[in-house]
Amino acid sequence: MSQNLPAAGAPAACRILLELNGERRELEVQPWTTLLDLLRDQLGLSGTKKGCDHGQCGACTVLVDGRRINSCLSLAVMQDGAKVTTVEGLAGADGLHPMQAAFVRHDAFQCGYCTPGQICSAVGLANENRAHTRDELREQMSGNLCRCGAYPNILAAIEDALPTLRGQGGDA
Amino acid sequence: MTPFSYHRPEAIDEALALAGPDSRFIAGGTNLLDLMKENLLHPRRLIDINRLPLREITPTPEGGLLIGALVGNAELAWDPRIEARYPLVAKAILAGASPQLRNMASTGGNLLQRTRCYYFYDAQTPCNKREPGSGCPARDGLNRMHAILGASDACVAVHPSDLCVALAALGAQVHTQGPQGKRRIDFADFHRLPDDEPWRDNNLDERELVTAVELPPQGYAGHCAYLKLRDRASYAFALVSVAAALDLDGERIRGARIALGGVAHKPWRLVEAEQLLCGRRAEPAAFAEAAERLLQSAQPLAGNAFKIELARRAIVRALGEAAGGTPR
Amino acid sequence: MNTLAAPVGQPLARVDGPLKVTGQARYAAEFGAPGLLHGVVVCSRIARGQVLRIDAREAEALDGVVLVLTHENRPPVASYDKPYQDDDAADGSPFRPLFNDRVLYSGQPLALVVAETRELARHAASLVRIEYRQEPHQTDLLAVREQAHEAPEPPPAPRGDFAGAFAAAPVRVECEYQTPVEHHNPMETHASTVFYQADGGLLVHDKTQGVQNCQRYLEQVFGLQGRIRVLAPFVGGAFGSGLRPQYQLPLAVMAALKLQRSVRVELSRQQMFTFGYRPRSLQRLRLGADRDGRLQALAHQALGQTSRFEDFTEHEVDWSGMLYACDNVQLGYRLAALDVYTPLDMRAPGAAIGVFALECAMDELAYAASVDPLELRLRNYSEVNGNQGKRYSSKELRACYVQGAERFGWAQRPQAPRSLREGNQLIGMGMATGVWEALQMPASARACIDADGRLQVSSATADIGTGTYTAMTQIAAAALGLPMEAVEFRLGDSNLPQAPLEGGSATVSSVGSAVHQACLALRQKLLDAAQQSPASPFTGASLDDVAFANGSMRLKRPPYTALALERIVGVSGALEAEVRVEPGEQRKNWATATHSAVFVEVRVDEELGTVKVSRVVSAVAAGRVVNPQTAGNQIVGGVVWGIGQALHEETLIDHRLGRYMNHNLAEYHLPVQADIPSIEAIFVEEHDSVVNALGSKGVGEIGIVGVAAAVANAVYHATGKRVRELPITLDKLL
To answer: Helix, strand, or coil here: B161?
Structure first.
């Protein structure tokens, strides 16, 4: 794929294909649009949050092919062909995703702004299956800041949901 | 972000042909897009190299491993061969950034991270690294995070990578490919000290692409440690980090590797300091001598004198941990 | 009968939880419309001077750039101070964005670039060139400590004879503490989305703790009385940053008015460092005590920074005159003006730093007098607020000490520093007292039960994560005996009944009281309605004769008739009651405050200086707790803030440039998950019939107060090093 630079203003759009929350989407994106801005501004999927726009807070965490990434530091065009899951895509027809339900049960948030990123990150952590002790969970959830300071409840929610998720396998 | 054209070549030659003075290769994007959004870099052409065949980890004939430049940081840290034979690499990676960033960032890109100097990162302030000749406010300004070794009048910035500290310690090689062909660069010669050209972080040519990092056969798997000291428990850049590795014959040291992060414009390694340890018993007095030698030329700035003492203690601690067997 | 029964007091899940975990809760920058324009702010590079020229030609030439707004082309705005003085304004002349060519601080907004997309606006903003005439600036508080002036709101008057008592005291402590600038940094950056309506009115989504505060501000500044509606159903954290209208709001409105189009302005994380913050402080304490540690004399002098245009005042030293019994007290509070923005209330403003210094000084006194730190507090316990000479309406601080110490295991702590160790780790235990005001402000609420028996209660307050939606729903459900599901609480809309700013831990006290009273008024209306039908079994009954439970109104005497509320309104139609509640007269005779006792364990690496908080117990006395789960979360969050204050947070300024330099979340260190240990919050039982009808005091601030001191005291206990300058980074312990 190659797309050339116009003389001024915005660069010309490219066509990309995403599997977004289980749905095939053909989209026109400008190369300078990040995955985060595509989700929030163009697609109205504002569940994915912008806290810093520089990979320093984790509020924008989404799952790409089952792995957690910061959507603010990826160009949408670079995700051409990828499978993207946002917080809007986690709940099934039968209700909340087990991680979402655990967050509600444990009051694992206050303002709710970092919450979608925390939840996607926790689902990504479950997929990685690399954290086994409480301290490992803490370390591997340290890419998601929570200014309200709900960390202990977030940890409790994740500990609660992990066995269910490990039982299920899969990538959200 | 300044407008740019976007290209996604499928072959290395194609990528190299697209490269030029205003172009940048992009892999993970975790640092490049950050810098572009901060208005610090303005490439007019982005060459997305993610479709290039650089994702393999393969054994080398010498018994080492060749890590493709596009191998992700997390993928590398969790590769069973790395975990078993090069735990120092795994530990260094996992001490850096966040799980999300490690999922995105590439091996090649990790080598090319720019400094976290406050002034470099604020387009409204002078910085010789960003705007040659504009000055270095860090030298007499906020420099708690800055260099104690190898700095120049022009620049006191430090290299932010953790992985690179481990690679420096192990003596890795960087494989590159450019218009002039392929070459291998010893890790010690890859990054530069600032001297009077602080805008040059490394010795890559303008159109040259990092294709792989080669690990030598010796991984010091049994006796290594990565110790990172920072201002919070995770997700912070190093004030000082130490990659330490020992080859032990009983209690005697046969060989040693020590590299420091967070203290200089490049990972800091001094072969003489390592040699001081050879043949010695693995004990704190010997470690302290090596630390002394490693830090001999250290020059504090107004805000970071503590780093010299911190580095000294960290070296002794890391070598002690390594001697006790690689922490699990 | 008890109108504050269950679900009040129950640990219920947040009613807004499902919206928040599914990404459906929408914040200020998440409301869109076709053709919405995006504004990006250009900020000043210099700290003081004059804008000579703004060259926006290159930006304006780009296809899709609609406007570059500056002081030269902005729409008309009010020119006097008064219209800009919002409900949380400091004394002085509020900052007026794009008012003229003066540069008052580094980071000041000087232009707004408006374009069709966010990316284009950001790019165009980078092309705006500004020429300045620079003037010498001063941003260093230490450099101007001699030029400080009295704060407009002076601290409580001196009592007794401090100088004499201090000189005569056998045990004396003199110390100086310093705290740095900190920024609120809520996870959501400040943003405003302004919808330009067909009739020229504006519908504004703003990140704010007071929709009516912003509404009034905009009406006054732009002369748009009656044409502004401000909404903020969800706020992504604020901690004080939303108490005043921030500059993105008037900028977005200016652009919308000028273009007659809808505009969104979202600040970057870097720009979150270009308005209010917790001010740097320098505090001197002198404590004199008898040999048993009983305070004979106490002086607390603080110096705070402010801007050149406003005098920001907070209660920093007042706590030292009320927390302990002492007859000879002298408090001082001065301000020094700098070329910076005005500070802004930030979680437990004044107390977070003032009580830090006081409680560290008390720990110093404990060692000077060789008394256990907890025992020292008990020896100086006061049932009276010495500043006011009034008894506390309730003060179960003693229970906090006892229960907190018990849970923490304080009794096992040896007094001598450096007496606990595990390998390289020195272990320390520290404690401190926390205190905050129990305020109440006038507030209104409306309760409306519709013909289906669903209750809707509303007030123009906010939920910044504090649990307002849930707590108010509980209060309303309890008052009318309805299940939670039958009640909806609405907030964050300037059209709703009047509410004060959501701050100061006063929302349950103020708005909760209004909600409670509105629901009680609705009970009367329901009874009246039931009595309308001929031969009603309720004829002649008063409210005392009926109970509201399980969705029904029931006669408490024979024939014990129960009538579903649904059936009452099915006949009468919807019923509504609106009330305004003022703080009760009875409050005037009492001092009101919340208290806490915080116990902290730290592990310090002896050689490397790294500090890890390993355990925290916080015992809180805050009156009736409406929801122990959400309130406990508030306390835990406050403790996390206190850990950040103690160990991590500091906004670094280069005084030569007059500019904050670590304006990002990589180098402004908030605590991360790995920094936070298990934290136990305990609410001790406290009954208060004075503070308000609910007996509830609020928990938003008390959680942080004292925590930083407890951490610092634990670090001293571990290492024997007294660090008097926050944050306690490893270099200070080498």
So the answer is: coil
Parallel, antiparallel or unpaired: strands B45-48 and B181-186: unpaired
- Compare all CA atoms of chain B with the CA of A79 and give the residue at the minimum distance: B50
A142 burial class (0-12, 13-18, 19+ CB within 10 angstroms)?
Answer: buried
The domain total for chain C is 3
What average pLDDT does range C436-461 have in this prediction? Answer: 97
What's residue B188's pLDDT?
A: 98
Shared-domain flag, residues C536 and C596: no
**Of B144, B233, B314, Cβ closest to residue C675:** B233
Nearest to B264 by CA among B153, B146, B140: B146
Touching A: B residues 35-54, CB under 8 Å: 37-38, 44-46, 48, 50
d(CA B233, CA C665): 15
CATH annotation of A14-89? 3.10.20.30
Give C610's contacts in chain B (Cβ within 8 Å): 229
Contacts of C638 in chain A (CB under 8 A): 149
pLDDT band of A2, cuts 50, 70, 90: low
On whether any CB of chain B is under 8 Å from the CB of A129, the answer is no
pLDDT of residue C3: 81
As averages over each run of 10 residues, the pLDDT of chain B (328 residues) reads: 96 97 97 97 97 98 98 98 98 98 98 98 98 98 98 98 98 97 98 98 96 98 98 98 98 97 98 98 98 98 98 98 92
In chain A, residues with a C-beta closer than 8 Å to the C-beta of C18 are 96, 100, 104
B7–A125: do the CB atoms touch at under 8 Å? no
Q: A55, B48: Cβ pair inside 8 Å?
A: no
Instruction: Give the domain-ending residue among C554, C582, C610.
Output: C582
Residues of A with CB below 8 A from C20's CB?
Answer: 109, 112, 115
**Model confidence pLDDT, tens digit, residues C271-326:** 999 999 999 999 999 999 999 999 999 999 999 999 999 999 999 999 999 999 99
β-pairing, B224-229 vs A83-85, is unpaired
CA distances from C237 to A109, B38, C167, C182, C641 (A): 11, 24, 47, 16, 13
Q: Global pTM?
A: 0.98
Band of residue A4 on the pLDDT scale cut at 50, 70, 90: low
Tell me if C310 sits within 8 A of C244, measured CB to CB: no
Instruction: Name residues whose C-beta falls within 8 Å of residue B2's C-beta, 6 or more positions apart in sequence.
Output: B36, B42, B43, B44, C123, C126
- Both C217 and C294 in a single domain? no
Is C536 in the same domain as C632? no
Give the sheet arrangement for strand C575-581, strand by strand. Answer: C487-490, C455-458, C443-449, C575-581
Q: Is A46 on the interface with C (CB under 8 A)?
A: yes
Question: Is A51 an 8 Å CB contact of chain B?
Answer: no
Closest partner residue to A141 (CB to CB) among C13, C117, C673 is C673
CATH number given to A98-168: 1.10.150.120
By CA distance, what is B46's nearest residue in A? A31
Is the predicted ipTM greater than 0.85, yes or no?
yes
Q: Give the rounded percent of residues in chain C with a pLDDT score beyond 90.
A: 99
- Domain range spanning residue C220? 31-136+187-238+242-273
Note which residues in 131-160 of chain A have CB less than 8 A from chain C.
Answer: 135, 138-139, 141-155
Residue C122 has pLDDT above 70, yes or no: yes
Q: Report the pLDDT value the prediction gives residue A8, as an integer from 0 to 100.
A: 57
Is residue C39 predicted with pLDDT exceeding 80?
yes
Give the neighbours of chain B: at least 3 Cβ pairs within 8 Å: A, C
Cβ pairs bridging A and B (under 8 Å) = 105
Domain-ending residue, one of C582, C612, C645 = C582
Question: For B282-310, how does the pLDDT look when each residue is reduced to its tens digit (9 = 90+)?
Answer: 999 999 999 999 999 999 999 999 999 99
What is d(CA B191, CA B185) in angstroms, rounded to the nearest whole number?
A: 10
Give the catalytic positions of C in this structure. Answer: 701
For residue C203, count CB atoms less than 10 angstroms from its CB and return exposed for 0-12, middle for 13-18, buried for 19 or more.
Answer: middle
Residues of B in contact with C124 (CB under 8 A): none
